[in-house]
């Protein structure tokens, strides 16, 4: 395997890209579920996952929270975490 030297303009930041989805697909639900599943795999408590959606400092999750509301996010968290979600 060859070694590539670090270059000043190498990208380090995450860059989001939009892509088309079929009509009828709930993009917010898919994205929120994906994010919550990732949090669960990292052993993040469900209450903290909810706080990250509610925080305006996390623009992607907060956009879903603003568009769909807290009840929507709570339902995704409960469906991913199951009984261990407790009173989220």
Describe the 3D structure.
With 88 residues, the protein is mostly helical. It has a domain at 27-85. The chain is built from 4 helices and no strands. It has helices at residues 27-41, 46-54, 59-68, 70-81. The longest helix has 15 residues, at 27-41. It is extended. The model has no long low-confidence stretch (mean pLDDT 89).
Protein topology:
Elements: H1 27-41, H2 46-54, H3 59-68, H4 70-81
Helix pairs in contact: 1-4, 2-4, 3-4
What would you report as the Rg, rounded to the nearest angstrom? Answer: 16 Å
Mean pLDDT: 89
In terms of structural class, how would the helical and strand content be classed? mainly alpha
Helix percentage range? 40-55%
What is the number of strand segments? 0
Fraction of residues in β-strands: under 5%
- The rounded distance between the terminal residues' Cα atoms is 48 Å
Number of helical segments with 4 or more residues: 4
Order of helices and strands: HHHH
Which blocks of ≥5 consecutive residues have pLDDT under 50?
none
**Outline, from the CA principal axes?**
extended
- State the major sheet: none
Task: List its traits.
mainly alpha, extended, single chain, 4 helices
Characterize this entry briefly:
This protein has helices at 27-41, 46-54, 59-68, 70-81. It is an all-alpha fold.
């Amino acid at each position: 395997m060859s070694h590539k030297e670090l270059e000043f303009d190498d990208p380090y930041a995450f860059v989001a890209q939009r892509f088309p989805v079929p009509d009828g697909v709930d993009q917010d639900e898919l994205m929120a579920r994906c994010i919550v599943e990732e949090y669960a795999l990292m052993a993040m408590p469900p209450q903290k996952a909810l706080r990250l959606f509610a925080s305006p400092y996390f623009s992607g999750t907060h956009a879903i929270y603003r568009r769909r509301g807290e009840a929507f996010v709570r339902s995704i968290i409960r469906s991913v975490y199951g009984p261990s979600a407790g009173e989220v």
